[in-house]
Amino acid sequence: MLDRPFFDRPVLDVSRDLIGAFLAFDGVGGRIVEVEAYDEADPASHSFRGPTPRNAVMFGPPGHAYVYKIYGIHFCLNFVCRPGSAVLIRALEPQAGLPRMHERRGGVVEKQLCSGPGKLAQALGINLDHNGLALDRPPFLVRPADDSHPIATGPRIGITKGMETPWRFVLAGSPFLSKPLSPERKAL
């Protein structure tokens, strides 16, 4: 299991090391195949303008969930690293609790169950009640990747500032991504 010291590192290192890790919430989850990094020096980050009631968890101890709502309907799950930094979990390869995922997501095809941050949170049953929960105890389970695998990077998705910063990390070749990576991007 990944413990709090794992998250108490630079956000780019944590992001890279989360690719291939296993994430479950209350027994439902899968392999992390896509993440994005954000820190307080980044104009696209919620922490860029300092602490607020909404983003306070980002300035708390590492190894906690930062959950927020976007567009008034979708929830997003982030893993807090050092103060003001977090990793947005964008996509999973579903591996555990698929019947519950299908029930929550309306029976969509497997590749679409967790292929985006809002879809992922819905499939896992994550909402604002889970903001601030520790990642090293139930209902969360986060295990390290079993093996090495090719990682590719590219620009983040759906932001208006810092768009070209290559802080999107993906499992190269995964069919479970929220959006394919540009073909010119190279694996690390």
TrEMBL record:
A single GO molecular function term of this UniProt record: DNA binding
Cross-referenced InterPro entries: Formyl_transferase-like_C_sf, MPG, MPG_sf
Keyword Hydrolase on entry: yes
SUPFAM superfamilies according to UniProt: FMT C-terminal domain-like (SSF50486)
GO terms, biological process: base-excision repair
Entries under CDD domains matching the protein: AAG
Origin: domain of life: Bacteria
Pfam family membership, one: Pur_DNA_glyco
The keyword Nucleotide-binding is annotated on this UniProt entry: no
EC number: 3.2.2.-
Main enzyme class: hydrolase
UniProt keyword annotations, A-Z: DNA damage, DNA repair, Hydrolase
Family: Belongs to the DNA glycosylase MPG family.
The protein's name in its UniProt record: Putative 3-methyladenine DNA glycosylase
Native species: Devosia elaeis
